[in-house]
Records
---
Amino acid sequence: MKPIVEIVIPQLAESLVSATIDKWLKQPGDRIEMYEPICELITDKVTAELPSTVAGTLAKILVGNGETVPVGTPVCLIESDAAPQAGESSPNGNGLQADAPQHAPALQTVASDSGDQSMRNRYSPAVQQLAAEHGIQLTDVPGTGLGGRITRKDVLAYVASFKANGGAQIAQPVDENETSALSQVRSSGIHLSNMPAIPPIETQGSLIPGRGEYFIDVSPVRNTIARNMRQSVTEIPHGWMMIEVDVTNLVLLRNKVKDEFRKREGINLTYLAFVLKAAVNAIKDFPIMNSMWAVDKIIVKRDINISLAVGTEESVATPVIKNADHKTIAGLAREIDDLARRGREGKLTLADMSGGTFTINNTGSFGSIVTNPIINYPQAAIMTFESIVKRPVVINDMLAVRSMANLCLSLDHRILDGVICGRFMQRVKDNIESYTLDTKLY
Amino acid sequence: MAVIEYIDAIRLAMKEEMERDEDVFVLGEDVGVKGGVFTTTKGLLEQFGEMRALDTPLAESAIAGVAIGAAMYGMKPIAEMQYSDFMFPATNQIISEAAKIRYRSNNDWNCPVVIRAPIGGGVFGGLYHSQCPESVFFGTPGLKIVAPYRPYDAKGLLKAAVRDPDPVLYFENKKSYKLIKGEVPEADYTVPIGEANLLREGEDITVIGYSLPLYFVEQAAAELAEEGISAHILDLRTLQPLDKEAILTAVRKTGKVLIVHEDNKTGGIGAEVSAIIAEELLYELDAPIMRLCGPDVPAMPINPPGEKFFLLNKEKVKEAMRHLALY
């Protein structure tokens, strides 16, 4: 069968929207060559002959002499000589436009296909707002949108039916279903049926019902902590060790001097000051603890600047006690008090934070007895001082009640190994245990 | 009321304004003796003489510059850009001079010029006779921009533009000239600049647009009504300043919005309209804001399949509207 081709009124001139057929030059059955005029057209602007766009035989005239039709209207059908071709423009002449509406039926099937529920739980802001306004459980609302989505209109219809039924009708069956279902499942134990159904008013407390979570914006401080911690654990191979220290003498010493110290200095004399002094002295003996990894070399710092971890509920900062080895126990206590106070007040400056070479964290202050700290990048090690607890200890084959505390150390295993760190920790331990009632604070 | 064509509404507005106020005159390429390439200014030279229907050289920056100067001296010129595509040589005059003179002179001077320019394709005009340049001027404070769809608004807005004390760009759609017909009162009236117009009330989706594409939107809405989809259609009419209240009210009606225009999508009027909606109405949206616009290609192609691909039509609009309704 020969393909039938439509000849349409072309866009003869700009702004032209219609044309009038003046006179047909060909009649049905006539042979027509390519580009041969088939009729004459009159428009506002021009009078022109309409050429055929195919060779063939005129099959039918669709628009008679004297009729006016819009541009794009088919005026006749021509039986083309050309062999039928796949993809030839269809008789409606809308070759390209015909592509556009092809999606539409597909969409309709998706929408009407009750099987697809992929959008069932995607609530638009309008739906959430309306649900909160009317105290509606969205799980009860049938969704007619794409993929079973609940549309704004679905909620409005649900509200309307709720109101039409006098309010109780909708709520009632839901409650009944819930109680019967629950009492069937739970035959013993807590009687869930006695639990009041969650009133909708409570679920809208968050304004967005059904959300089991909420979001906190990441503050710049949090972001910095996150970045530093991640960098430390990803770059530094952490090693860990812990030793136990007998701090009985230290406790006695502090108890003896703390009140007088408070009177004289106006600040608390903390255990941390003593631990700091012990650690700093140990670092002096093992300078490698005060170093950093630089890929092809290890940089050992001459200054001993102790970073002190100061925590608040929201964050942690590590202000630095510079040249800690130049300071007495009293001087360290004063520095600790100053940094801790300013840390809690959020008044630490960038200068306070920089230059640290070794970190000490007084984790005992929050009751911990063992911690596994993350190294304060790019330092080589971090030490924690844990809670002081009284424990039975064997001394010279005799039991004694002693005040004990743990020291934990995380180390950069690229720089440090077990032996050196063991010796360092032993030195810290010795330093702490060698405090006596005669130890000078100044 | 008489039913007249869009082009006649524009011609009538100019004729009546020239009769009303002798400071009003038209100037542009071929607007005098020939009466305009589209016959928009036909008869004005005969009625008002060659001093009020000036044939100008082919120099758009001169047309705009002369009009702006005359306007600042108290005349009410209506300058015609033969095609909005030719308007770009005049952009500097329009954006740097007309739009800024009131601000720059601290209110001493103003510039009551009207610049008419035919926009849009679908007339087999190709690259230089089919563009929609509204986004070029849209972000320029100091300019008012109108783009009427109905003959009623074409006449009322042109009269309002002539009487406005500041520069107004008047974008008329050249395919609408003979295609769009509508009732226009014979009495003198204006359509206020800055007010949108509700074309159709509906429940399911809101369609916002301007100029010719609304023709397809209205046709599609009529067909979709038979499928049970009702569309709420807002004609912006004025692009600068946008009628925010009308936009927000129309979107609130359904929570689903489709923005339609022939100018290409990126940086078009629809982008600003959707930003306004997103800023003000997030919690009342029931579907993503959708836009149906010309593709981001450099210009309207001259070949017919390419032109059809580029242009909006009833089918494309209908599909987008149905898609939004079903969402």
---
Amino acid sequence: MSRLDTEHQVETIIGLEVHVQLRTQTKLFCRCSTEFGAPPNTQTCPVCLGLPGALPVINEHAIELAIRTGLALNCEIPPLTKWDRKQYFYPDLPKGYQISQFDLPICADGFLEITDPADDTHTRRIPLVRAHLEEDAGKSMHDEAAGISDTRIDLNRCGTPLLEIVTQPAMRSAAEARAFLSELKLLLTHLGVSDCEMQEGSLRVDANVNLHIEADGKEIATPIVEIKNMNSFRAVERAIEYEVRRQYIDWEDTGETIEDRAKQTRGWDDAAEATFAQREKEESADYRYFPDPDLLPVRLPRERIEAAQATLGELPAATRQRLQSQYDIKAYDADVIVNQGPAMIAYFETTAETAGDGRRASAWMQQDVMRSLKESDWEIGTFPIPAIDLGRLLRKVDAGELDNARARDVFQYMLENDTDAEGAIEALGIVAVDAGEIEALCRELLEANPKVVEQVRGGKEQAIGALIGQAKKKNPNANPQQVKETCLRMIREG
Amino acid sequence: MSIPLDSATELLRLQAAGELSAVQITQAALDRIAATEPQISAFTHRADEAAIAAAEKIDRDRSAGLPLGPLAGIPVAVKDVLCTRDMPTTCSSKMLAGYHSPYDATVVARLRQAGAVLVGKTNMDEFAMGASTETSAMGVTGNPWDPSRTPGGSSGGAAAVVAAGNCPLSLGSDTGGSIRQPAAFCSLTGMKPTYGRVSRYGLVAFASSLDQVGPMAWTVEDAALLLQVISGFDPADSTSLDESVPNFASDVAATDVRGLRIGVLRDSLDQEGLEPEVRRAVLEAIDVYRSAGAEIVDVSLPHSHYWVPTYYVIAPCEASSNLSRYDGAHYGYRAAISDAEAAERGPLLATYCKSRDEGFGAEVKRRIMLGTYALSTGYYDAYYLKALKVRRLIRGDFDAAFAQADVLLGPVTPSAAFRLGEKTDDPLQMYLCDLFTVGANLAGIPAVSLPAGFTAEGLPLGVQLQAPPLQEARLIRAGAAFQKLTTHHAQRPTL
Amino acid sequence: MSLSGADVRKLALLARLELSDAEVAVLGPQLARILDFVEQLSELDTEEVEPMTTALDVVNRWAPDKLHRSLTVDEALAAAPRRDESCFLVPPVLGPAH
Ligand SMILES: [Mg+2]
Ligand SMILES: [Zn+2]
């Protein structure tokens, strides 16, 4: 499909439902492991298999993680929350119901601020409806020849704690939806409440999308579509973009509006780069929610919530602000550092403090450090150069003991050899060159290059550049800036 | 010597005195079971070999001087609604025929820990839904007092095995009267403890907010012995109460009822459908207490008229959900489907529907349908939510009544044991059997059924005592006192 | 009240029960009668009454996030009507394409 170009004013309305797996060791209602990747059906017990007579017991840590997440998402944590059964039959749901939260979710009414993808000096506040705890279902593995052979069921994942975060339909572009997800992931990984690995299913996104079209002086809403099966943030973005075009064309063709059609579900096909209609169920869903009589309500006293609040520490948005003002770095640079997560922030801060120059530290982070990480597929946590060593190196640059080019050599040497800046400097034979040596070197160069001297006298000061390379060859430790200044002075003084 | 299979207390004494071994007792129980089963069919599973093995171990431990549990060497039968590692757990349903649980219910584990010898699993109404044990898919159980009559239900098998002299103790479960009504029909003492007093872990759920496991025995003394073993906090059941359990033996001994305020439920005595002989038994019980010095006060439970309708909304709603897990996917009965059925609705849906249709009996299906209806969109508020609100009113009635009285006295059942087949065609008629018992389940309070005499035909009658939450001890005191003053509990059927 | 055959069938589908025509014919009137019976609850004014979902006055029953032993694959699959070496086998949602 081509780009959307239309004489109509079209607004895209996007709401997201994000399921994040909380980082507990055990499941929400039993003490089986939540570890990803175990052989099928090796992490089950009577409770998560839904065997007769088994009963659920809440995992307290899941409650704690949900509270922390809710607070970080500016939610209200109501004093009372409870559990409800959502009832439907499916082979990956062995009890015939999912324990979830219906009318009293653990988190209500929050928001998340994101950088406006259309204008990075601007922030957008995305309001959240709620976030509730629920248990995950198991995994159904359908045969390639669908419909011929049996479906295989693995219940390892069944009962894993999920927090379902529901936004208002407040996003207005695919890029914004993606920015929301990136910021959410950053926040949750920062808090350590979730790994947010889409590949492993620890973060799953459904997007509700429709269009508000300004036509004939009135606003028309297209039918809402829920998009599923997106396996990366990029897929989310592309699926929404696709759906926007599809809905517009569909509206042009059929004139169908939200009144004509109930919400439908469409799946995203990554290979085909298209959404496709999913088969409608034979019956309309009636989940018959009711309070789970096996579980007691959870009452959260103010003090407990305040204690959780106190453990949150500085959140990414605040860190961005602080890095900018404390280290005098640009918003963009602060963003890049913060978006890499807590380890990167810590690395930067140590480097900047040691170097005594935030801007220089930031510049080195953005270029040298991040490039090396990318090239070698390292994590900042295992980066071979400790932040304090990089800081010391940059301090030397600041003090004029090294030029940037030399410092890069040192950096490279430190990367490849287990040594600090001093050791690298010594190993590379870098020694400070005193003023007398530089003068001797410059005099020699000027005598050997009368042409250059003439050019400089004639006003072409940049001709001196030719001498700098020669100076470097004769003495690699010579500071180019110093060579340049000394040569110019000697020529002036005649 | 003859072995007193009707008294756990006596069997414990004889073993301690070295006059009987656990194996002798167990063998006697197994022989008695073999003799009576053809007439009453009370077991869904008999564990003869395992029982003898368990008894041998008790005897070995005893001769080695090892510490023994409080039920060492006592044969006990458990209702087939409790999960057992070494016996099938079927809930008397085709759905779970041959199903083996990989774990023991907490109460079963506690029985084993206490040295009890498990002799088998007892028949019941399918998934505990019924009042006559006739909804069982495992056959009909007869009442030892008259095998042409029902032993009651749903714990009919558990009552029948004790009444038949198979073993002195059994465990039942009570969601709306399922321990107390069979106890009354079989002249036993049967107690439904406070909701949360006994762990539900491993009790196959019928209606989770009402279900409770409890003891059945001839006497209050024996019932208290069993209650002691099964009571107490269980971290595996979120609805189990973290409250200390008193030593009930001292309550059995304390039988002075002077000053005890006994609240008489006059309304229930005027209840339409209450048979005169039952009424007479209650009035006689009042006299027994009065002459022993108890204070008799009249109390009323204004919403008692709404107990049964409230119960028949809440219980089916919870049941419809609890029984969703039986779909033939992971365990239990799976129906074979034809190609045509597979083509019509898809193989999965066809398998679900057919497995549940064939696996469940009519009463279970009726209640699943009722509950599904009452929870569905548009009906939730009118039925389920309404019932929850009335439930609070009912609880409020009890709270008010217990401000005036220490225990409440009234009938257990409207009649004595009815004939097999008499009420099977009319579900509503069957539901009305729960008229006097469901209040305690809705309110979550403890209640006990005590033997209270016989009809002219020689059928047992019972009376019910109810107490405030966690006051099982009061029921035991008042019940033991009653049994000290009467001999109803000492009568035995001539089976 | 009355329940039509279609009502009963719709309910049966929701409850995943495949009822025969005979069962539908019996169940409809029975359910209707029971519903009429429970209908008497509507006589009561419960406007101001809090619903009571449990007889317990207890909250916050939970357990620490500590691993317990899980079942082995064979224990987990022991009662499965159909299984392979590691999974439960269930019929597929959709039948063979016609
Ligand atoms: Mg969800
Ligand atoms: Zn588990």
